[in-house]
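Folding problem:
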Amino acid sequence: MNKKLVIMSHPLINHKMAKIRDKATNAKEFRESVSEIGALLTYEVTRDLDTKEVEIETPIGKADCHILDMPVVLVPVLRAGLGMVDGIHNIVPTAKIGHLGMYRDEETLEPHVYYAKFPENLKKSLVIVLDPMLATGGTVSKAIDILKERGAKKIKYVGIVGCPEGVKRLQTDHPDVPIYLAALDSHLTDQGYIYPGLGDCGDRLFGTK
């Protein structure tokens, strides 16, 4: 069983993390930085993608090269997960995109599904679940449950900020799913927010508060 947790500490990621944590950052800068962090995380997340060798004709001669040989499916958890899609899709433009609409009950903090639509052939694809905040872990765990029910075999979770409670929940429920984050914060508040976190990511992305 794989309990891999990767915290991507990199000067560019750390710089952009400072930007999105700052409560003074406006929605436009916040969206851009979240997207850029997603793109930077992609290099590590896709490190073990299957490739195949092909012969390419360059302007000078022939070269043996490698191209991707595994389909990639991005599954953002609506709505905050949408903020990471463009950055990753720019790096892997052949990736298909599914959508999973979920919300947390404000009292129980349990996730509820209201929309789910995915590309075909999840079984043979690398499925990357996108949700910027790994708080209680319940929403991401439920998302992975749904994807496994639809046949997905190789799943990775990519977020931006997590906390020990969320990591523990995900590693307990899905020890086969690697976790990739840009930062691991100290704890959850009584209201279920990551501390110090960056506030409500969805509201900050779309200017709804």
Observations:
- The chain has one domain: 5-206.
